[in-house]
Specification:
With 506 residues, this protein is of the alpha+beta class. It is built from eleven helices and 27 strands. The strands form seven sheets. Strands 17, 20, 23, 24, 25, 26 and 27 form a seven-stranded mixed sheet that branches. Strands 1-8-6-3 form a four-stranded antiparallel sheet. A hairpin with a 4-residue loop joins strand 12 and strand 13. It starts with a strand and ends with a helix.
Amino acid sequence: MTIDMKVPAVGESVTQVTVSNWFKKEGEYVKVDEVLCELESDKATFELPAEAEGILHIVAPTGTTLNIGDVICRIASTVEEAKASAAADPSSVAIQKLTQKEGLQQVITMEIPPLGESITEVTLVQWLKRDGDYVKMDEALCEIESDKATFEINAKASGILKILALDKKNLTIGEPICQIFVTEEVPTSSPTPELASTATSYAAGHASPAAAKILAEKGIDPQQVKGTGRDGRITKQDALSAQKVVPPTPAPPPIVSTPPSPEPVAQPRAEGPHRGTRREKMSSLRKTVARRLVAAKNETAMLTTFNEVNMKAIIDLRTKYKELFKEKHDIGLGFMSFFVKACCIALQEFPAVNAQIDGDEIVYHDFCDISIAVSAPKGLVVPVIRNAERMSFAEIEKEIARLASRARENKLSIPEMTGGTFTITNGGVFGSLMSTPIINPPQVAILGMHNIVERPVAENGQVVIRPMMYVALSYDHRIIDGRESVSFLVRLKQLLEDPARMLLGI
């Protein structure tokens, strides 16, 4: 039998105590009423006596801060129970060995950091480190997910990790999530060999967010994929190379000559074996995106106007200068920088398209913070290019590449995704020919780019083949009139079909 010893009530106003010193060691045999450790509150120091006789397992090492009622140690009556208790709590064993060797070290308690004014709760997606692992400063410890993005929490120091929120999923801002017992000495071996040899790592067979998305698209069960990442974790590369296992087709049975039988009664056609279903809980990000899109449809007077752009001039310009551009600026010249630049010029000429509604007032912006819709592993995110109207083509391309890279790695911060004045979304990268994009409130307009398709068009009385793209502007009719929306799109078409206008300012 194993007894949990908890922090006793030591006074009405005392809610927390700190373990200042252990008089007994991990695994030592203790007797009833023998003093185990010393507890320190903000008012006095107390001794904790043993409640039973047996083998001691220390749950809260020296320096740990505990609430009244928290488990501080366990006393097991047999060796087997003591080993099981220690194996289930590897960090405490490692930390106790550290304190016995080096004395009391600095203990850093890590909390859920503020992520934005509107975010009060996050979801713990997964731990990237195990309880009792040695971690280095700035090493990623876990992934948390808010209703806007996914973040990693990095270690504030090097030392032994003690996880406080191992089983909790929903956490509030400021809530303690783990502690780091600071030491620069890397442990030479696992603190609990029995656990390391018999327990399966939490990461084995677990897919990273990007890998999980790829496997879901392929219809492959992660259990069928062998992970090559840390502790058997399934990486993105594992998911890309994974192939769906198709069960072999059984050989047809031998034909046996039998006398004719009566016509059988028609039976329902048997379906194949691959008719499984699966359910996945919607992520906080996906639920928020869904809620905001429905709200945009319900709360705005949204209309969409269309036009088409002849992309020949831009394609010719890119073909002619792309190598020189990359050589000078160390970044490729894409289509998006042309659209961002053209939108900035058109937005300054039609300020209502770059505005927003605030109660009974219209807020006009004399700057262009362009939001770029990006499909990330966790869902749609919209990072913002600040003051795009002041940027060169190279600066725009570099900022787009930086934001897109952070989006794919789920590392975008809240400030990087808030405050845009106008959005551009490019469905053409997925092959979309035409769509009606939904406004991203509180913005009042969004531009949709689409696939470039060679089509016959009439030029100077002749039918010629040109690379054409449909563009769509969805706008809030409450403050943008049809004349402004159509004129904006016509001006955009004019700038894109004659890029020299953007350089000459005409």
